[in-house]
């Protein structure tokens, strides 16, 4: 069987400018994979470590505040929090009057965060060594600026 290509229904050609989203997502996947490899003994995903770090730094936060600080939708964050609560890393309590839910670290969450922190620092240093201190500083500045521009 021969398959003929049709030139009359050809797809549009991408521009010469590479897709920014593709490169950002690709880099994010590769960096995440590297962090996970370094932190594999902790049992935490990088997203879980980030949540523990944010709650550890800020203390008790509403789900809305935590989602805002992490740049996530509330529903996405809630899905990420459920297994962490089930595993005893976080507690989620409700304020009855205003129907707000607060996230706090449990004792287990604090212990797991403290154990994972040195490995996360190792992953940070490894990435800094690979990229170079100045390049990393530039990258962080560009990513922060990009997030600020897009979120406005």
CATH-defined fold name = Arc Repressor Mutant, subunit A
Ends distance? 54 Å
- Corresponding CATH architecture: Orthogonal Bundle
- The averaged pLDDT comes out at 90
Class from helix and strand fractions? mainly alpha
The gross shape turns out to be globular
Number of helices: 6
Name of the CATH superfamily? Winged helix-like DNA-binding domain superfamily/Winged helix DNA-binding domain
Largest sheet: 3 strands, antiparallel
Structural domains: how many: 1
* Strand residue content: 5-15%
Low-confidence parts: none
Strand order of the largest sheet: 1-3-2
The tally of beta strands, per DSSP, is 3
Compressed to H and E, one letter per element, the order equals HHEHHEEHH
Helix content: 55-70%
Radius of gyration in whole Å, from Cα? 21 Å
CATH class: Mainly Alpha
Protein name: MarR family transcriptional regulator
Domain HTH marR-type: 17-148
GO molecular function: DNA-binding transcription factor activity
What would a concise description of this structure say?
Helices cover 64% and strands 9% of the residues. With 152 residues, it is mostly helical.
């Amino acid at each position: 069987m021969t398959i003929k290509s049709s030139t009359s229904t050809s797809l549009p050609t991408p521009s010469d400018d590479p897709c920014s989203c593709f490169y950002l997502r690709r880099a994010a996947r590769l960096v995440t994979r590297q962090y996970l490899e370094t932190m594999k003994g902790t049992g935490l995903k990088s997203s879980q470590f980030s949540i523990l770090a944010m709650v550890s730094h800020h203390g008790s936060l509403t789900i809305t505040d935590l989602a805002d600080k992490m740049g996530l939708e509330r529903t996405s964050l809630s899905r990420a929090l459920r297994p962490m609560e089930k595993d005893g890393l976080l507690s989620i309590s409700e304020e009855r009057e205003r129907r707000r839910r607060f996230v706090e670290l449990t004792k287990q969450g604090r212990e797991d965060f403290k154990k994972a922190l040195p490995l996360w620092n190792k992953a940070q240093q490894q990435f800094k060594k690979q990229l170079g201190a100045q390049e990393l500083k530039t990258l962080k500045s560009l990513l922060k600026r990009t997030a600020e521009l897009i979120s406005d």
